[in-house]
Amino acid sequence: MAYETIIVDVEDHICLIKLNRPDALNALNQQLLGELMTALEEADANDSVRCIVLTGSEKAFAAGADIKEMSTMSFAEVNSVNLFADANVRIMQIRKPIIAAVSGYALGGGCEIAMACDFIIAADNAKFGQPEINLGVIAGMGGSQRLTLAVGKSKAMDMNLTGRFMDAEEADRSGLVSRVVPAKKLMEETMSAANKIAEKSLIAARTAKEAVNRSFEVPLTEGLLVERRLFHSLFATEDQNEGMEAFLEKREAQFRDR
Ligand code: HXC
């Protein structure tokens, strides 16, 4: 499919999706969000893809929802198109691992899209924020929920109420990102992490993602039960057999996603 606001490249089992509206710091308009969801769903369905990487430019992962596009919308319009709800639901349904590689600004909807990915690798110039309050609105795609789960109430309130940005070092310290790397090495480090994931059994990787995500939805006892059931279920796969045999035979496992 031909995209206008993103660039998609599949190579060596990794689907790299680059947000590409440089004139607007990758602001998320409805076309971009639509194209992004289609690309994610295509990657999820493409058997040669084993991991997805989502990134932006050096200056901006994404500076938020497109303010120009939103500015003239009435409540009735926003309510009728159910603005951004569709993207939020569809991204949660992607079963393959998604890494967000964030350089520069990840603000508003940009921060929210990054948080909807499975983990974030940040360049040392990354800046995260939920500055919607400056526009007279609030976060609309998880910025009051996922951010709170990631960094706790105090920092989430601070960011949502003052609109201040969090730099990469604070984001690392607060658990918003999994690691910080020099800006110049962002893609190298991210692709290396993606390659590591791509080497695993895709069944196990999908299951690990499902298990961790479950922890946000259910109480601990229930989550532990789900985890145990998923763990047991993997003993029905050839990959479990191969993984354990390979360890005992001191060789690399050859997973076949079966
Ligand atoms: C539309 C945007 C934009 C946005 C930047 N631009 N952010 N256009 N929507 N969210 C455009 C600018 O208008 C400008 O276009 C060009 O990108 C470069 O931006 P500058 O402001 O000139 O760059 P700079 O001075 O470096 O400042 C960078 C910035 C600032 C700090 C990121 O652009 C900024 O504050 N942007 C808005 C951030 C924001 O409020 N995000 C939340 C949006 S609400 P021109 O044509 O003038 O060159 C939201 C709701 C989420 O996300 C709901 C669910 C998705």
UniProtKB/TrEMBL annotation:
Give a Pfam family name.
ECH_1
Q: Which residues cross the membrane?
A: none
Recorded E.C. number(s)?
4.2.1.17
Molecular function (GO) terms for this protein are: 3-hydroxyacyl-CoA dehydratase activity
InterPro entries to which the protein is assigned, alphabetical? ClpP/crotonase-like_dom_sf (IPR029045), Enoyl-CoA_hyd/isom_CS (IPR018376), Enoyl-CoA_hydra/iso (IPR001753), Enoyl-CoA_hydra_C (IPR014748)
Q: Which PROSITE patterns does the annotation name? A: ENOYL_COA_HYDRATASE
Reaction equations catalysed: a 4-saturated-(3S)-3-hydroxyacyl-CoA = a (3E)-enoyl-CoA + H2O; a (3S)-3-hydroxyacyl-CoA = a (2E)-enoyl-CoA + H2O
The cross-references to CDD domains, in alphabetical order and at most eight, read: crotonase-like
Q: According to the lineage, what is the superkingdom?
A: Bacteria
GO terms (BP aspect)? fatty acid beta-oxidation
**UniProt keywords, alphabetically:** Fatty acid metabolism, Lipid metabolism, Lyase
Q: What does this protein do?
A: Could possibly oxidize fatty acids using specific components.
Record-stated family: Belongs to the enoyl-CoA hydratase/isomerase family.
Name of protein:
enoyl-CoA hydratase
- Identify the species of origin: Aliishimia ponticola
| Organism lineage string | Bacteria, Pseudomonadati, Pseudomonadota, Alphaproteobacteria, Rhodobacterales
